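Last lecture ended with a question: if I hand you only a sequence, what can you say about the shape of the protein? Today we answer it with a concrete record. The protein is HIT domain-containing protein. Below, first the input exactly as provided, then the predicted structure, then a couple of comments.
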Amino acid sequence: MHSKFAFLFASWRNPSSQRMTHEVRSMATTLYDAPVSNNGARVRMILYYKDVPTTEVKIESPAKIGGLKSEKYLEEVNPQGKMPALEEEINGQIYSIPESDTIARYLGAKFNARSGPGDFAPRAGTQLAVLADRITRHHDIYLASIQGCLYKATPRLQPFATFGTRADAIDEFQQQLIRLERFIPDDIKQDPYLLGKQPTQADVALFPTLVFAERMLPKFQKTFCLEPKLDSWFKFMTSGKDQVATRIYQEISSGLDAWEANQRWDTILGAGIIDTKPVTIFDKIISGDIPADIVYEDDLCLAFKDINPVAPTHVLLIPKQRSCLTQLRYANDDHIFLLGHLMSKVGHIATDLLGLESYRLVVNDGSGACQTVFHLHIHIIGGRALLWPPG
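The predicted structure:
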């Protein structure tokens, strides 16, 4: 390692770097990880395939030093508060290495010559290196980046990557699984692994994430279905013939069992929270079974004239997918994008399409407020003077 780079990297830990260097000078490399982590499992698979003992790489839970968000972890291990993270001592300095891809490549190169299956550091520029990189990059950019849609509460004011709703992100996740098929060689049926007779970075990146998908997609009434070549590989990996894959499958599954016991999905829209209320007249308007005087439509919402208007202009704006929004009171963080979309269209509908200079928005919530159709709808009312307070 270039001495200037080493100095700068080590200095990232100041002022504690010198103290930590003294304290852990003779300790093993430490991987901070948890069994349930699919990204961490990517790294663990390399260690297991190469039979690296814990005297060389010790696997510790972040809880050992206070947890992912503890001051110690943030200052000394990973300022992002994420795992996996690796601590490695080189020439008396402690190097903190975050991100699963970086760790997997580093450890893959370090232990690649060890006995045990796997080529985790093929020579740069070779066909194997390019093919493995193509699959791992697809995984990291298009699957891992949105996998949270399968198990995380919706981030407040922060959608899943570029997708405003969980449902859209899940659909994209499934599409990206389909697109992976083109990157797998046609001779997969002869060779058990994605790129031949030995596991590579591609296998260890993808397998743990598919363990997640197999368990979680059905929770959202989605089918875990793989294209033929990928399906053949996954069946081999889960057949018990690969002991490392079996071990990882069991580790992740035990963690997911704990998530189940803690009711992780019970409050997630589409999994624990499912719309089971009866269909309404609005559903029939959306499907086209009942005609309506439509004034605006896009992928998410529909606006049409009320058949019992209370003013010269009276339009109803509704979401096309009710998503448990029978009433506004049931809105939660999963609905932020949808509700924002509805409100963002009001001005265009009222001003540009209906020609209103002033108007009122009304949402009735409950039968006591004169709600008669239990599918969230916004009344856009105008065309005459509107009194205050409303009745």
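Comments.
1. The CA atoms of residues 309 and 315 lie 8 Å apart.
2. Confidence is low (pLDDT under 50) at residues 1-26.
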